[in-house]
Amino acid sequence: MLISECVLLLSLLAVLYRVIRGPHAWDRLLGYNAASNRIFVLLAIVSVISGRHAYLDATIVYAALSFLGVVILARFMERGGGHR
After folding, report:
1. pTM of the model
2. CA atoms of 84 and 22, how far apart (whole Å)
3. Is residue 83 in some structural domain?
């Protein structure tokens, strides 16, 4: 499990680079989505390792809120990002 956690953390750093340095807003949004996916996979792994089921509940809530946030941001950007 330690190897998979390290690989996920390294890939999270690579994705966060895309969030910060993305040339377009869509690249940043995709980076945010990928980063949030990696975070809730890490939370699920920690939950399984520690044996605490409350972490799984938090992971499900985090995943749902992250998905909702991406959908809302995508709709906002699709409509012009507030520029008229």
Report:
1. 0.82
2. 24
3. no
Q: Is residue 84 part of a domain?
A: no
- Give residue-wise pLDDT tens across range 14-59: 999 999 998 888 999 999 999 999 999 999 998 998 988 888 998 9
> CB count, 10 Å around CB of 66?
17
Is residue 19 a part of any domain in this protein?
Answer: yes
- Check residue 68 and give its pLDDT: 96
Three-state DSSP state, 67: helix
Please report, for residues 53, 64, 66, 71, the alpha-carbon distance to residue 43 in angstroms, rounded to integers and kept in the order given: 11, 14, 14, 22
30 touches 24 (CB < 8 A): no
**Counted domains in the chain:** 1
What does the DSSP 8-state code read for residue 24? Answer: S
Q: Is 81 helix (H, G, I), strand (E, B) or coil?
A: coil
**Domain carrying residue 13:** 2-78
